[in-house]
Specification:
It is built from twelve helices and two strands; from the N terminus they run αααααααααααββα. It is mainly α.
């Protein structure tokens, strides 16, 4: 059990480190700079977003150039939505930390309870590292081209050095080549890439952290209900009802913070996966490095959707198990408990929803896959019609 506790501490440290870097792990006494850090990161994305939109509009008739610029635009917009959602709902995020962290820490002090709540901690602990590693690998592979070009020019003494941009951009203002303005745009695109690498893993990993804590509290409640007797039944039921009310309030806050993020991630990842499939189907020859990059990119997008869907399914499953535990508890023949048990059974299970449009379960992952295939077939139909 000590190993599981250490894993949870490692899991929490990873989350704190990721959020602290971008200024999302803040407290009441945090400095103004810490709270403004996320705003600074998001400003890096503004200029390349304008350049990508302008490039997309200018090349809308060229499907290959258009879909390449669309991928970059979706990446920028996804990070902007994640960052803005946390800025707008920062108070709710801070309250979630205040509610869940201390209570979960108290549960870990009890050896019997920690055994219940730390189940599957190894899987959850690896998810932030997996997301971060995949994003870093993809971003480095994507952004290394201009660096290699600069090194090549320096080795062959080709001056002045031409700083190629990372993304397909066409800025709506004049940028003279080899000027200070050109160099600043070049640096800003690398800062934008760093923003993507830092914000996305932090936001996605925090979601898994909240889900693990909520699931752990549900397990603790199930354990207490299954073990109560006539002496302490009133106290245990009262405690579980109070905790369930707190969890319902926490779920509303999580839905408020992550609703737009999950909905946007579902739709944009389906579009991106469709674009990658379309490009691969039209490539006459694919270098091994390019193929590996495409496979890694597809795995990243599928992993992001799967993490949201899988965590939501675990929450729903644990909530249903809690209801089953209530029904199977020692209340038959006890008229004093019957009313309380019936009221608890009438409560709706905890199911994460997105604006009352869909349930965040593993079925959501299958919907994204099906949508990707539908988009691809639609794109092929337009291509044949042209």
């Amino acid at each position: 059990m000590i190993a599981e506790k250490l894993e949870y501490v490692q899991f929490q440290n990873i989350i704190v480190r990721l959020l602290s870097i971008v200024g999302l792990w803040t407290k009441q006494n945090s400095s103004l700079l810490s709270r403004l850090r996320i705003h600074i990161y998001l400003t890096f994305l503004v200029v390349p977003t304008f350049g990508t939109i302008n490039y997309l509009v200018a090349n809308i008739s060229n499907i290959n150039l258009a879909i390449n610029s669309l991928c970059s635009l979706l990446a920028f917009s996804t990070v902007i939505i994640k960052g803005m959602s946390f800025i707008i709902n920062r108070k709710d995020v801070d309250e979630l930390h205040t509610i869940l962290d201390p209570y979960f820490y108290e549960l870990m002090k009890n050896p019997e309870m920690s055994k219940q709540v730390l189940n599957k901690i190894s899987t959850f602990r690896r998810l932030p590292k997996l997301i971060t590693a995949m994003l870093m690998t993809g971003s480095i592979s994507y952004a290394i081209g201009p660096i290699v070009s600069i090194i090549h020019q320096i080795r062959h003494k080709l001056y002045p050095i031409d700083f190629n941009f990372i993304y397909l951009t066409l800025y709506p203002w004049e940028i003279p080549r080899n000027s200070l303005i050109h160099f600043l745009h070049f640096i800003n695109e690398y800062l934008s890439t760093s923003t993507i690498v830092l914000i996305s893993p932090a936001v996605d990993s925090l979601y898994t952290y909240y889900m693990f804590q909520t699931i752990g509290i549900l397990r603790e409640m199930s354990y207490r209900i299954s073990m109560f007797d006539e002496k302490n039944c009133d106290f245990e039921i009262r405690e579980c009802v109070n905790k369930y009310e707190i969890l319902v309030r926490c779920m509303k806050k999580i839905q408020k913070v992550y609703g737009a993020i999950i909905l946007w991630t579902m739709n944009t990842n389906a579009i991106v996966l469709c674009i990658v499939m379309y490009q691969l189907s039209h490539a006459k020859s694919i270098p091994f490095f390019a193929l590996s990059l495409c496979v890694a990119y597809v795995c990243l997008k599928l992993t992001q959707v799967f993490i949201y869907a899988w965590s939501g399914s675990l929450l729903t499953t644990e909530s249903e198990r809690f209801r089953e535990t209530i029904y199977a508890s020692r209340w038959l023949g006890n008229t004093r408990l019957k009313a309380s048990i019936i009221i608890m059974l009438c409560q709706r299970p905890l199911i994460l929803t997105v604006y009352n449009l869909l349930y965040v379960t593993i079925d959501m992952f299958m919907k994204v896959v099906n949508t990707t295939i539908s988009y691809y077939l639609l794109l092929k139909t337009f291509e044949q019609g042209a």
